[in-house]
Amino acid sequence: MDVVEACKAFVAVSGHGSFTVGAAAARIPQSVASRRVAALERHFGARLFTRTSRAVALTPFGREMLPSARRLVDLAEALEHDARRAKLRPFRLAVPEVCAPRPLARLVADARRHDLDLDPRPAGPADRVELVRTLDVRAALVAVPPDDGVWRVPLGLAGHADPGAASAVHVETLRAGRAERTARRRRIRLQPEDDVPHVRDRLTRLRDAVGLQPSQVVVAPSLVAAAADVLGSADLLLCSPGQAVDLGLHWRPIGELDLARGYDVTAGLREDAERIRDLPAAAIGRCLDGGEGRP
Asked: Who wins on pLDDT, 170 or 291?
């Protein structure tokens, strides 16, 4: 027996003195109201109403039970109201700053179909972790080594010059020859999203292994700054394929290194993390690629 629904019928019938009118007020059939009240009487082991052919009246036991039944019904209605409000309350999610507007908007639309009102908060890798720690967001898409992540975004090098038929860019080709030692050396520019150990340190070790100068791998203050430097020179940008398309750059994988961003979900509460993981993985993946999702 559903005690709450039975009490709703009990309260409605007592308020109108009729099973027919009370059932109509409760928006249930009269037969359902009768069954629910009868079930409540069996549960309590005493009659709530005296019944005649014309009306019903509360028994002394029914009068004693009515205030408690009303409190239970009011509490249940308040609980349902709070649940509806909780579903509509924005769910703050820290996302990488590389997420482009269009795939991010699609993710928000997909989340709404799952009764989740996402409120994305773009932030850098370290800031996203801190936002979860301080409870400024309920969850975050955090940078992790690609083998540990739910999502993996390949990284390569992109420049404004078309590399032609080249299938990959080899970092060792950036090493200056004897005739070029007085010229400005080409650089690899990292955006803030890739200023994490599992990306930055691997590329730095490759830089040292092939004999590049320390200044030839640099972290830019922003993606815009990094892209501007690449568009105005022969430098290369470490980025995803989607970002390269949006910036009008030519992307190739790195010849000596399989480099990728990895992402996972973290949250203060396990159920909040699960709510994000329950969203379509492909929709989140499109956001993390950093492009606008062009076909």
From this structure: 170
